[in-house]
Write a structure and sequence with these properties.
about 35% helix, Cytochrome Bc1 Complex, Chain D, domain 2, binds heme C
Length: about 120
């Protein structure tokens, strides 16, 4: 009976880490570029004089999702907090992006936007 299959088609509980992980990475890439992260950390997080490179984070066990979320929410010594300017969902997407070993290019090119374009 086909009907007996219906119950097994429910969404997996780990959706964010399953099929939608790639789209979360892309969403995170766009946020990273458009919300000001790239202004200090450089396009794709390669680093600038203002802020360290973030490209090694996927290999650094110290940077758990919880610690990354905390850094973004509360900032650091010179990094501003983003608790008021990003939603929990957006922060989760940026964390997925930061932890991706092969970072997707945000649609629209790799260049950081002009400062005045961000709001
Ligand atoms: C005004 C410049 C600035 C902006 C904007 C900024 N950061 Fe940072 N960030 C820093 C600096 C400087 C550090 C080094 C630690 C500190 O002083 O806070 C840092 C550290 C970090 C770290 C820890 C890396 C490490 O190895 O210490 C993460 C992760 C991070 N930033 C992510 C982000 C994300 C994601 C955004 C955007 C939501 C962002 N940053 C926006 C300046 C910035």
């Amino acid at each position: 009976m086909m009907l007996s299959l219906a119950g097994s088609l429910a969404l997996p509980a780990h959706g964010l880490w399953g099929n939608s992980q790639k789209s979360s990475q892309v969403a995170g890439a766009v946020l990273f570029r458009d919300k000001g992260c790239a202004h200090c950390h450089g396009a794709a997080g390669i680093g600038t004089q203002k802020a360290p490179s973030l490209t090694g984070l996927p290999h650094d066990k110290k940077w758990t999702p919880a610690k990354l979320t905390d850094q973004i929410l509360n900032g650091g010594q010179k990094m501003p907090p983003f608790a008021d300017s990003l939603t929990d969902q957006q922060i989760a997407e940026i964390v997925v992006y930061l932890r991706a070993k092969h970072k997707p290019t945000p649609p629209g090119g790799t260049a950081a936007p002009p400062m005045s374009a961000a709001d």
